[in-house]
C-alpha cells in the first residue's frame, strides 16, 4: 500500500460522495487538508494507482500526515476524534455519549449510506434493467424508514446529541443531501429537519456545498 509522509492530511475526494462528511468534519475542526480529486466518472477510482491507496476502490480515503491511509467514513471519523480530542466533535471514550455516538455513526454508515448504493446503482444488484425501477422504489421506502429511525434516535436540540454539535450531525446532513430535493428525506421527521437546518447554518457548510455544486 502506498504511504507517503507529507506532514498534512490528504482527503481523496469526489463531488457528492461520502467525502463530504469528512470534509465537513475537517472544516469544523479547523484542520487544514489537501483535497485530492478522484474523477470517478472517468474510472479513476479503479486505476492501479488508486487501488494501491484503497483496495476497495471507494472514496473517501484520508491519508494522515504520517502517510498512513484510512478508509471507511466511520473509521476515519473515529480516527480523527482520537487524534484531535480537543475539538469535541467526536465524544471521547470516557464521555457519557460515546456509546450512543458509536451506535448511530455505524448505523448511518452501514444502513442508509449503503441503501443509497441500491437507490443510485440498481445495476449492481440485478442485471435485468426491467427490475431496476422496483429496486429503486424499494430503496426509497427503506431510506424513508431508516431516516425515521434516525429521527427517533435524536435526543438533543438542535443537534443529535445533547452536548452540542458532533460528527453525527454532519453525517446526517450529508445523508439528507444525498436525497437531493426529494421530500421523502425530511417529511414527518422534525428532529432530523432541525439537525439539517442547524448544520446548514454553519460556515463550514457554505464552503463545502460550493465544492459539491449544491
Ligand atoms: N462503506 C464506505 C462506503 C464508501 C462508498 O460507497 N463510496 C462511494 C462513493 S459515495 C464509492 O466510492 N463508490 C464506488 C464504488 O463502490 O465502486 C464508507 O463508509 O466509506
UniProtKB/TrEMBL annotation:
Residues 7-88 form the GST N-terminal domain. InterPro entries: Glutathione-S-Trfase_C-like, Glutathione-S-Trfase_C_sf, Glutathione_S-Trfase, Glutathione_S-Trfase_N, Thioredoxin-like_sf. Keywords: Plasmid. It comes from the Bacteria. Residues 94-214 form the GST C-terminal domain. Pfam families: GST_N_2. Gene3D superfamilies: 1.20.1050.10, Glutaredoxin (3.40.30.10). PANTHER family: GLUTATHIONE S-TRANSFERASE GSTA, GLUTATHIONE S-TRANSFERASE-RELATED. This is Glutathione S-transferase. It comes from Paracoccus zhejiangensis.
